[in-house]
Amino acid sequence: MGLPDRLRKRNLSEIILISVAFILRLFLIFTIKWCNSSDLNNYFWAAERVIGGENPYILWQNHLQGPRSDLLPLELLLLSLIISVWESPYAIRVFFGLCDVVVMLLIIRLFRDNTLRKILWLTFYGLGAGPLFLFVLTPTDKTLLLALVLLIVVLARFYRPYPWVYSIILGLLAALKWIGLVIAFPVLHAFARNKRQLFCLFLVVIALFGVSHVLWYPDWQIVYKFRASRLHLPPFHTSVALVLQKLGMPMQNLYSFLIVLSLAACGLAYLLGWIDWEKAMALSLWAFVYWTPDCTPQMLLFVSILLLIEVDWTSWKHSLIIWVGMLFHTLISAASVYPIIGGLIDLQWMTNFTGIYGSTRTAVLSQVFPLSCLFLLIKDVLHTIVQTKVSPT
Questions:
Q1: What radius of gyration, in Å, describes the C-alpha atoms of the chain?
Q2: How many Å apart are CA 325 and CA 297, to the nearest integer?
Q3: What does the pLDDT look like over 80-100, one tens digit per residue?
Q4: What are the extents of the domains in the chain?
Q5: 16, 108 in Cβ contact below 8 A?
């Protein structure tokens, strides 16, 4: 028996949107030479050293050659396997493009019962200026992380697998970029049957994280030393810490405190029942990323997308805020780097407004979109709390 016409047309529109989005990514990757990504240079250099039989951690530590190798062992192994198939930076960029396809497939599953929300999301992520500029033209590994986080949400909403499945995904996220450790508590607490199982699930996450560090042991310690040293540096990139330091706050002494305090607040709100585990996960990632001294536009977009997953922004007012905000965020990022490395089009005229990348003005303007997303989520949370108190069930 064939699919109903309505369902067939819906599936066709989704396939067309995803296909167009992926083809557009391939077009940008292979036809546009400009690529503003020191991260991509670092990824390729480190992975190329591995397939050449060298140790990129030692080379980086000894300053013998090349860029940084500030990747955790599992991510370094993954990128090395990718370029062992095709030894080119394009291989890494195509892989991230495929991660984008996975993200869009997960979005379809996530909003399968809400056609408007699903199409809005596919258009926003697949064709929107933010993901195309900040994730494709300036490639980083955020698309891979986003796919794994969304996988957790989709599994929890529709399949309810055994809790250890979440532990495995969280362990992979931890081994790739630490974030699995940050979001482990709300995720595992929501699905563990009791405290004993919760403890065992945590052990699985820690075990996977630890086993991944067997690779290149102990040379990867340079990554931890490098990251720890950044907590004692003045803020840079587009971090909100740049703004706070300009206002007189001693940020070099406050990074860790603000991160821990924000994570504790998210955990407490979850335990008190003010937010569910999904919102706690999204807000925890926000807290972990937002206060870092080296927060970039890509990192801000990454956490903003996770916040928006928890918000119904199908109303025209909310949609306008999101679309205009994302375009504004993208233009600020593009215009601010133009005086430093140029760009696809002449944006010098905008630089007088945005400031140069790394300036306080750019940092201020870069907070508009992510704070708008945070505002919409908090607004939804407060509305839910009020509704619960007015009409408890």
A1: 21
A2: 13
A3: 999 999 999 999 999 999 999
A4: 15-229, 231-380
A5: no
